[in-house]
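Following up on my earlier thread - several people asked me to post the actual chain instead of describing it. Fair enough. Here it is, all 432 residues.
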Amino acid sequence: MIKSIYYVLEIIKFLVIYLLGFSMPLTKSYRKGVLVCIVAVFMGLLQKYCNLSVIYPILYIMFAFFSFYILFEKITFNDVAIIFWSIGVILSTDTISYVLLKLVLQETVSQLKSYQDLYASFITIIILAVIFGVVSHNRKTALREISLGYFISFLIICVVNAFILALVEKKLMNIHGEFTWLYVMLVLSSLVQMAFVLVLASSNNWHRKNEELKEQYLELQVGHYQYLEERNYETKKFRHDLKTHIYVLRQYINESHWDELNDYLDTICGKIENIPGYISVHNETVDAILNYYNNQFLKKECSFKVIGSLPQQCHVSAFDLCTIFSNILSNALENASLEDGQVELSIHFDNDMIYIRERNTFQGNLKRKDQEIITTKAEKDLHGFGIHNIKDSVEKYFGSVNIEIINNEFVIDIIMENKNPNGEGRKKSGRN
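Reply from S.P.:
Thanks for posting it. Predicted structure:
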C-alpha cells in the first residue's frame, strides 16, 4: 500500500511541474484521473511483489509518459523533452529530499525507514511547489517560452546539487552531527540556486519579449508618422489647387454646364475620400497602432471601423495596451485579404472596467483543446503566442478573454479592470 501511495505522490510531483511551471491544460475527465490513480496503485503492487530493480527505470519512464498522455490527452515532441526533463528534476530533488530527511531524522530514521519514501516525496512536492510557484507567480506561461539552454542548465544544477549533497552527507555527517549547520546551509543554498536559475531565465525571457514589443511599437510609431506625412502631403496638394477648383466650379455654374459640374464634383469628392481620416480613441499608444493598421487595411481594400474610446485616465500600461491591440489587429489583418473583408473594433468603459470587442470576417473553423485555441497556421512553432500574450496582459487587470465564431466572423471579447496591477488608480469616471 505504501508503494502505491508513493506512485500517487509521483503523479503529484509531475503535476506540480506541468501545472505551475508550464500551465498545461489538465483534462477535466474524472474517469481519466481515476485511471491514472489505478495505474499508480498497480505500479506500487508490481514493485512490491516482483523483483523489478533491473527494469525499474524503464517502467518509471513508461509510467511518466502514460500518466502525461492520460491527463493531458496528447504528447508532442516538445512534451517528450519536458517529460524527460521533469523526470531528471524530480529524481535529483528526491535525492536532496532523502538526505535532508536523514539529516532531520537522524535519531529516529531507523524506526521510520519504511515510510521514508513517502516523507521524502512530501518534501520533494513542497520544494517543487515553492520553486515553480515563485517562477509562475507573475507569468503563468513563463517556462513555455524560455530557451532550451536554461532547461539544460537547471537540470545540470539539480543533478550536481544532489550529488554534492549526497557526498557531503556521507562524508561529514558521520562525525556526530558536528557539521549539521554547515550541511543545512548547503541544502538551503542549493534550493535557492535552483529557484534562482528558473527565475533568472523567466526574467530574461520577459525582458527579451519586452524589448521585442518595444521594437514592434517603435515600428508602428514610425509607420504611423509616415502615414501622417503622406496624409499631410495629400492634404497640402489638395489645398494648393483649391482656388483653381473653385474657379472651375464657378465657370461651370455661370455657363450652366451641369453635367460637367457633376463630373468635376465627383472627381473632387474622390480626391477627398482618398485622404484617410485620423482615428483617435484618446490614447496615444493605441492611436498609433490603430492608424498604422488602418493604413494596412486600406491597402488591402478592407473596411475598418472603430467605435468608442478609452478613458482619458487609462491605468492599463502602454506595454499591455500595445500587446493587446497589436495582436488583435495583426490577426484581423491576416484575414483582411478575404473578399468583402470587414473589421470592426469597439471600445467602451464605465466606472472601473474597460470593454473591448473586435470582429472580423473569418473563413474556417476555430480549433480548441481544453478551452485553449489551437493555431491552424503552418509554422506552429512561430505562432500561437498571440492569444497567450493577450491573455497574460488582460489577466494582470483581473480580466477575461472570450473567443468564438459567430456567423462567419471571428469575435474576441475582452473585459478588464481599469486599474494598476498593484490595485491602485481605480477609475472614477462615469459610463461611456
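Residues 375-384, 426-431 have pLDDT under 50 and may be disordered. That should answer part of your original question.
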